[in-house]
């Protein structure tokens, strides 16, 4: 039985509902764990899971043991993390301040660091679980926060202001879609199992698209934000055609981000 880990966010529970419910069969069954993205990154680094959703930035440190699948990830245009603050101001105002991040190994933190470097600013980072970031900004505990997941759609309701769209910055910087997360499979399982898992995830996503009502209860059971409109917007934003197959453009985007993160050797994606 393979150990599979992904986040409780609506895009992941939408994609994986078919496999979790058994509607899409996996021979031998799956031992499924749902956890925060940074916790998943840590478990991947410890080789605790056979198949795991990871931040693309974190993938740079595990590609000796894992290979990335072409299906199941989060990638696209206009989907990147944002920097929010209590005031409407430019990011340069954060120089010398403390900023909350949703984990040091997240793609969000890598993008934030690259953007800070380009702008010539230095900040102190404070790691938090992603749903603690906006309350910390609101309370004044930190000067700003890097927001991911459904926070992209709810920050204004908390009275916060967008200081920078890191996805937009990446797109202008590279001309490529922003690769947020990917599914990694242990290399020791072999290319055949990796290819089979890739196809199983594709079928799980296709089943969810065919019958979105069928996975709604599973999604709401695990979602941080229970508002139906926010959940639907989350899925529309983060589940894209790249989630079915990253394609050549998507692989190029991942390779560029991995290069920025310090990985430059070897094949990142499974050969299909």
Q: Would you summarize the structure shown here?
A:
The chain has 272 residues and is of the alpha/beta class. The chain has helices spanning 10-21, 37-45, 56-59, 107-119, 133-139, 151-154, 166-174, 191-210, 216-222, 228-238, 241-244, 247-260, and strands spanning 2-6, 30-34, 51-55, 66-68, 74-76, 82-85, 98-101, 124-127, 144-147, 161-165, 178-186.
Q: What overall form do the CA principal axes indicate? A: globular
Helix content bin: 40-55%
Give a quick account of the main beta sheet: strands, pairing sense, barrel closure. Answer: 6 strands, mixed
Task: Please trace the helix and strand order, writing H or E for each element.
Answer: EHEHEHEEEEHEHEHEHEHHHHH
- Helix tally equals 12
Global mean pLDDT: 91
Strand tally: 11
